[in-house]
Amino acid sequence: MLIRFERKTDLEAWRRELSPDLRLGFVPTMGALHRGHLALIERALEECDRVVCSIFVNPTQFNQAEDLQHYPRTEEKDLQLLLEVGCHLLFLPTIEEIYPEGPENAPNPFVFGELEKVMEGERRPGHFRGVAQVVSRLLEIVQPHALYMGQKDYQQTLIVRSMLEQMNSPVQLVVCPTVREEDGLAMSSRNLRLSAEQRALAPEIYRAMRAAATTFAERHKKNSSAFRQPTPVGQIEDRYLQQLAALPGFRPEYFCFARAADLKPLRDLPPEELPPPGEVVLCTAVWVGDVRLIDNLIVS
């Protein structure tokens, strides 16, 4: 049975009735659920006694009104998927429930420094502050023991980890592997907006990432001392950035090797700070037509 609440007071009352010995898992989403979301819920069900999923399309993390307007909403399908997977509770709040004083007046005490100025932060100013606003607010309402998020939004997971540290929160952040289609495309709600032709080409993003990561690892293994310079890294990035840009309708924004711990681009690091494979993440964002797709891969 799936319980559904729209008011935070109802969820809070339900939360108070739970035995203190029960472990509560939480999966925040913006709906248009797919197997990637369900994998998070399944992981939470394995590790927790009760699992809450929220669906809330958060206006403060969208930079363009058009993007917010076109974000897919599939509520009936989402409800059925949550019921089938065995989720215990769906929280489906209104904007007023999350931001009682209006989104523009929501508190935002967090400081993320350089982490919110690279990659997604550089191209979507204010986006991660919106993420921190809504996640902190949802955690305040749900009060879970564990928060489950996907690696596909790698930079977002680092932001949330920093936010939890700044809050001195006891909530455990569990980052789950990216779930992919059989052809390698990372599952995303935005994939629904791809045309048939675009969908057929979209897996080229993952193929380019795998090839670039393999090249990085092989060159490092062959001559690690020479690879302590950022130039070879930049050469690999440029090669695959150009390869993606040559595909019809593709407009890559970035294709960047970075230090996994803090997303500092390897190009910008002094030789002595360049990490080995295993501590490097490759991140990319590519426009396919008017749909912006992001992905990442841990280099091993």
What does this structure look like?
The chain is an alpha/beta fold and 300 residues long. The protein folds into two domains: 3-176, HUPs (Rossmann fold, 3-Layer(aba) Sandwich), CATH 3.40.50.620; 189-299, 2-Layer Sandwich (Pantoate--beta-alanine Ligase, Chain: A,domain 2), CATH 3.30.1300. Helix content is 40%, strand content 19%. It has helices at residues 8-17, 35-47, 65-70, 75-85, 95-98, 120-123, 127-142, 154-167, 196-201, 204-222, 230-245; strands spanning 3-5, 24-29, 50-55, 89-91, 146-150, 172-176, 250-259, 280-288, 291-299. The strands form two sheets. A six-stranded parallel beta sheet has the order 1-4-3-2-5-6, sandwiched between helices. It has a three-stranded antiparallel beta sheet with strand order 7-8-9. β5, α8 (154-167) and β6 form a beta-alpha-beta unit. It is globular. 35% of the residues are buried.
Shape: globular
Low-confidence stretches: none
Helix-strand pattern:
EHEHEHHEHHHEHEHHHEEE
Under CATH at level 1, the class of the largest domain stands as Alpha Beta
CATH superfamily of the largest domain: HUPs
Regarding quaternary structure, what we see is single chain
The total count of helices amounts to 11
How is the CATH topology of the largest domain named?
Rossmann fold
Radius of gyration: 20 Å
